[in-house]
């Protein structure tokens, strides 16, 4: 009798557990992913084809273009506006039978992949991104091959679309092959690139660039910088540098290439003009130039102007100017009136003397 009671209790308990699980499955939303611009069908649980149901999205009636076919809701030409939480209720008592979270997106396309070594000869990193958004969660699978051997790939802790790989050997002449596959609920797409070790070496820009005017030198600037901190072995893998500078008033840059120095004196600056200065770095034998460093601004030494001499009373005496001697052809100044009357008297005196003799 005790065994029979125990058996019945187990059966009842199992039935309760099954009913609870079914009820729980009806309340927990399941995800459904569909392609943009397609027609979408959502099934209300496991109801028969002749069941009568009503649907809601995000707690309100479905207003988008749709039609009902028994327990199925059919949406036409779906877009991002159709994303949401859909619930179906069985008529006539309105019991909720299913909940679906609809996600609209597109399958991934071939990702763009680039690889670079800024820590040569330790290793390199590869990064990737989708050229077009997928609107739904997309993951990436990475495989790196060298001499038909898979290399260990470490995901970056900060950049989700980046991984790091250590060089298995240095100065290898065999190419590396990197494959990145984008995967989401609607499909997958892959990109594969191949490269030689030397082609991806690119240091980070030089750091802590400074430019300082040189005392009493109005055309000079002293520029200094530090090696990029990410470059691990500057002694065995030295860098060379490329300096560019220009005054703000001009668009054309001037350039200087330096072998291994971390300083340079600009000797042809315009006096009193503000300059913008940047530096790039490169391995002395392989790879490409880094990006430019953060720009710094500096102005050459400005010489203090000579103080003006105080004005005295002597300086205020007007200057005496001597008129130039007129040329013989230049018109002369007018003569005094007395001199002109005497000359007339001299001319007419014989005439007057004759007239007096006739009267007598």
From TrEMBL:
The keyword Signal applies. InterPro entries: FN3_dom, FN3_IL27B_N, FN3_sf, Hematopoietin_rcpt_L_F3_CS, Ig-like_dom, Ig-like_dom_sf, Ig-like_fold, Ig_sub2. This is Ciliary neurotrophic factor receptor subunit alpha isoform X1. Residues 107-204, 205-302 form the Fibronectin type-III domain. One of its GO terms (cellular component) is membrane. Residues 1-21 form the signal peptide. Keywords: Glycoprotein, Immunoglobulin domain, Receptor, Repeat, Signal. Residues 37-88 form the Ig-like domain. Belongs to the type I cytokine receptor family. Type 3 subfamily. GO terms for molecular function: cytokine receptor activity. Residues 320-330 have a biased composition (Polar residues). Residues 312-337 are annotated as: Disordered. Pfam families: fn3, FN3_IL27B_N. It comes from the Eukaryota.
